[in-house]
Amino acid sequence: MAIQLSFKKTERILFCASKWWGDPDMPANMEYPTIEVTEEGETYDYPLTFLCQINCEDLIPFDPEGRLPHEGMLYFFAAIDSWHGYDSPTQNGRGEWPKGHCMVKYAKAINFETFNTCMLTDDEDQSLTDPELEIVFSECADDAPVCRLLGKASAEETGTAMPDMSNLLQIASEELLALDFGGADSFCNFMIKDSDLHFGNWKRAKVYLGPSKM
Fewer CB within 10 Å: N-end or C-end of the chain? Predict the structure, then answer.
């Protein structure tokens, strides 16, 4: 079985909780990931978009085989702005995204006293992120066409292009997330080899955006 991610608006404070959008709560020594961008002859670091953080204790009831960590925090970042309706110097289309245009990070333990919320703001100190959403977990089929952890990619093209990799995080077009990948049969997948998943080699995850052939 895979683990479905559903989302809801909430007034709860989601510091160090599982959440989508908002700002990541990270250890002081963890760097926010960026990519190098060159525009009009100027090179600068552009921040990847924070997608979500997963408090791994929430996964325990849905992951009896221990395929994912059961403590600490998983973070997902990607250069996904153009699919979220924002202008961006990075335009990632269908297929495999370039190296560095996605990042999975992991903190082995959560410490409420030392973790800090890493906020992205503009020149007027206004937040650049969308309001955070609470993540609710449930079981689902390995091939369910939803946002989920584990299982296989719903887009047949993705599985064909990456036959030795499994789905780590699948993102479906969701109205509440304001993400549209071109229809209900298109999915953005963080893919990872089983051996890298087992040993926690999170930096080796790749992103593939593909339409479904179902």
Answer: C
